[in-house]
Design brief:
A motif ('HIGH' region) lies at residues 14-24. The protein is an alpha+beta fold. 43% of the residues lie in helices and 18% in strands. It contains 21 helices and 27 strands.
């Protein structure tokens, strides 16, 4: 056990421009497994996650939604926290870049860097990618587009502050050379070295054209550029530069920053350069994992290939989804999400291997020993093999977790589970049970199986936090049994098992694939419809305004007192009929709360009587009675109606709970 008993791990802080998808969950579940495992080892863990809430994209999204940026992000952040609660994410702290204490820290950091000459004012001329919040030079563009996401960039020219990133190029290269573990996986380190050696440009760290962000304290017309704001969260969350927390000295430097490969450059070049300028310790490791792909491409809401983790968790269970993400995706490389892979992984590993082993073992303990088995030594080579695999499991898993090879750690655990299933076939307990002379051997076999399950359950707790306690319960143990110091063969003297529900019911593959395919098609169709609607709206907005056909001929002005003489009320249409004498008029009988009255209205061309009967509408009820149709009818008011652009007519109706006779103001 390491003497260093603290462990600080961070996810990237997610951009709340929309609900998170399964790709975001992948990163967070991986960090959660590492944090849980370190806690099991006795470390004092700080697990940080949060949201990066400033920038132009949020500002634009909020404007489109007709709300303030803070109102917009508040709503999205609530869904993020709900998702992490659903997925059993055991974070210790959730930071928002709109938190007052974070803003205070950022302003102090920016000011310090400016006062010591590491930040200076200049002019930015180049290209900007709004989705990536990134500035690019001509040479960095790929086919004239953003080298990170492939989207269009636009020309940017504005006054800005710059951080002297280039000043730290040599120190960064030396950092990579002297600390080979700093950038992982190893393959990504060469990308960063090449980026620096092509000529490291100073970094634009403020904008004047974007107001949604943290103001530069000594020049408020400037807003801090999102990356300085975002990266500082890793230390502001511990109390650096603020009095909200007092844990900086305890947990910094971070043991691990976990980020997606698309933002590795900011975390391994800009962030350590900032820390060097601040004369602060550097994080120990930055791991840039790959993308979770679908249909060969990175998940994107705009193309309709995102997967909603809430839907998956509701359908298959949280631990099944956690397991798939941690086991299926080669950590550090891109991985593919398919419905077939998900269902096959659930069926083969969780239902067939783990679930089947537990149910068979418990059933045999109950059938042959009334549920209680005791520790009986093994006598054969296959016993020794299972004992050795079980006792060596903790060491193997620990090494894999230290190396961040999480899928390999799960493979080691399931190697023991699979070996235990094979052990059942080799020892054939049902055959041993036929002869009383084999009772001791039979008890030894079942004890071996219980021990393999117990140790596997202890270690699975980091990955499947709701499944491991269920395993222990069926083995007759409580939560205190989930203890890595007991993760070795022979640590438990006896078992009194209790049969429970299947951990992971087997899924009908054909039926489930058909269902998921249908849901995928619905989602894609919805995304395509939304995309088309957006394009049409943008096209319409960009088109020259059509000449209005609204009649703007005005009546003579009246005084306020004259207007107050007009009595407007809500009335209910009790009856309505066409007039034989006129194709234009409808004869309405309306109730104004006191009496029924007759109103003739020239709306027969656009409304049928049945469209109006029972509806509540607005009327002018103190209009002098007007004889019509040669005195055959007397109209006692007028209804509200408006001309439409196509020459039609529109009537505003009131809800059913609006009282008849209510004044209209």
């Amino acid at each position: 056990m390491s003497e260093h008993k603290t462990f600080y791990i961070t996810t990237p802080i997610y951009y709340p421009s929309d609900k998170l998808h399964i790709g975001h969950s992948y990163t967070t579940v991986a960090c959660d497994a590492l944090a849980r495992f370190k806690r099991m080892q006795g470390y004092d863990v700080m697990f940080l996650t949060g949201t990066d809430e400033h920038g132009q994209k949020i500002q634009d999204k909020a404007a489109d939604a007709g709300v303030t940026p803070k109102e917009y992000v508040d709503k999205i952040v609530a869904t993020v926290k709900d998702l992490w609660k659903l997925m059993d994410i055991s974070y210790d702290r959730f930071i928002r870049t709109t938190d007052d204490y974070h803003m205070e820290s950022c302003q102090k950091i920016f000011t310090k860097l400016y006062e010591q000459g590491d930040i200076y004012k200049g002019e930015y001329t180049g290209h900007y990618c709004k989705p990536c919040e990134s500035f690019w030079t001509d040479s960095q563009l790929v086919d004239g587009k953003c080298p990170e996401c492939g989207r269009e960039v636009y020309d940017a020219h504005e006054e800005a502050y710059f951080f002297k990133t280039g000043k730290y190029a040599d120190r960064l290269l030396k950092l990579y050379e002297e600390n080979p573990q700093f950038i992982q996986p190893e393959s990504r380190k060469n990308e960063m070295i090449a980026f620096i050696k092509q000529g490291l440009q100073d970094t634009c760290v403020s904008r004047t054209s974007v107001k949604w962000g943290i103001p530069v304290p000594f020049d408020p017309k400037h807003t801090m550029y999102v990356w300085v704001d975002a990266l500082s969260n890793y230390i502001s969350a511990l109390g650096y530069g603020n009095e909200k927390y007092d844990e900086y000295s305890k947990f910094w430097p971070a043991d691990l920053h976990m980020v997606g490969k698309e933002i590795l450059r900011f975390h391994t070049i800009l962030w350590p350069a900032m820390l060097m300028a601040l004369d602060l310790p550097l994080p120990k490791r930055v791991f840039g994992h790959g993308w979770l792909l679908m249909n060969g491409g990175k998940m994107s809401k705009s193309v309709g290939n995102v997967v909603d983790p809430v839907i998956l968790c509701d359908r298959y269970g949280v631990d099944a989804i956690r397991y798939f993400l941690l086991r299926e995706i080669p950590f550090g490389n891109d991985g593919m999400f398919t419905n077939e892979a998900l269902i096959n992984r659930i069926n083969s590993d969780l239902a067939n291997d783990l679930g089947n082993l537990l149910s068979r073992t418990v059933a045999m303990c109950e059938k042959y020993f009334g549920g209680t088995v005791h520790k009986v030594a093994g006598t054969e080579a296959i016993d020794t093999e299972l004992e050795t695999m079980t006792s060596e499991l903790l060491g193997k898993v620990t090494a894999d977790m230290d190396n961040l090879t999480i899928p390999q750690a799960l493979m080691e655990i399931f190697a023991v589970i699979q070996r235990a299933n094979k052990y059942i076939d080799e020892t054939a307990p049902w055959a041993l049970a036929k002869d009383e002379a084999n009772k001791e051997r039979l008890e030894s076999v079942l004890y071996h199986l219980c021990e393999a399950l117990r140790v596997a359950g202890i270690l699975l707790n980091a990955y499947l936090p709701s499944t491991a306690p269920k395993m222990m319960e069926q083995l007759g143990l409580d939560a205190s049994a989930i203890d890595v110091e007991k993760a070795a063969y022979g640590a438990q003297e006896s078992y009194t098992v209790h049969k429970g529900e299947a951990l992971f019911p087997r899924i009908d593959v054909a039926k489930e694939i058909a269902h998921l395919k249908e849901e995928d098609e619905k989602r894609k169709a919805a995304a395509e419809a939304a995309k088309k609607a957006k394009e049409e709206a943008e096209k319409k907005a960009a088109a020259p305004a059509e000449e209005s056909n609204v009649d703007f001929t005005h009546e003579a002005e009246i005084s306020y007192d004259d207007f107050c003489k007009v009595e407007l009320r809500v009335a209910e249409v009790r009856a309505c009929e066409n007039l034989k004498e006129s194709k234009k008029l409808l004869h309405l009988t309306v109730f104004d709360g006191e009496r029924e009255r007759c109103i003739l209205s020239g709306i027969a061309k656009w409304f049928k009587p049945e469209d109006l009967i029972g509806k509540k509408l607005g009327i002018v009820c103190n209009l002098a009675p007007r004889p019509m149709m040669k005195g055959k009818y007397v109209s006692e008011g007028m209804i509200f109606a408006a001309d439409t652009a196509d020459g039609g007519c529109s009537i505003p109706f009131y809800s059913d709970d609006t009282p008849v006779g209510a004044r209209i103001h």
